[in-house]
Amino acid sequence: MKDEAKSRKSALREHLKVSILTLRLRPGADLDEAHLSDEFGLSRTPLREVFRKLAGEGYLDLRTNRSARVSEMSYTTLRDFFLAAPMVYGAILRLAALNATNAQINDLKEAQQAFKAALRSGSGEDRALANNRFHDVTGEMSGNVYLLPSFNRLLIDHARIGMTFYRPQTGEMSENLSLASQQHDAIIAAIEARDEAAAAQLAEDHWNLSRDQIELFVMPDALDVPMGVPPLSKPA
Hints:
The chain is mainly alpha-helical. The protein has nine helices and two strands, in the order H-H-H-E-E-H-H-H-H-H-H. Strands 1-2 form a two-stranded antiparallel ribbon. Helix 4 (75-99) crosses helix 7 (147-161) and helix 6 packs antiparallel against helix 7. The protein is globular and about 50 Å long. The N and C termini lie far apart (69 Å). 30% of the residues are buried. The model has no long low-confidence stretch (mean pLDDT 88).
């Protein structure tokens, strides 16, 4: 019975993580606890245990006497993301080059193969999740108990606001996906060579590649209208 309950909690946790990362559950959305309880066969106590764990990882916000909700993405959090991401990614890859084990390098290579497979035939969600797994492994490689929680929190929002990157709408965006995969290969090579300087430079290059597409999430082209012209106005 305990194993079955543990399995249900694990299934709920994975369901919520994937739903949040892929925007099936939008930022700020309230969770339907009654529905989740019925769907996964969990009572309120184990359900809330899963919520608390996900809140600690940055996926959810818990509020007193109110339902749990998906972590918000406000102006402040987006600004903090753009300020912190380049610094944290660079530090993570430097440490990965110094500390990665052979087993972790093999895990990273497997994650890259999954990413390439997703690029060939997967959906935008598949690509985003595969990319998230690749970077998650680099975080494990860093082995830094202070830096890793911040990195994992960044990965949540990187996946969410980077969904535009994994659903390319132009030839240039498709080429950027191919280049991202090549950079993944270069990151693996730098880590294998224990070249921390090269790894840090690749972190910057990789960030710069996706930054423009990520910014589309914040300010889509459709919102770029002349001053004083209502977006929904009709010709006379």
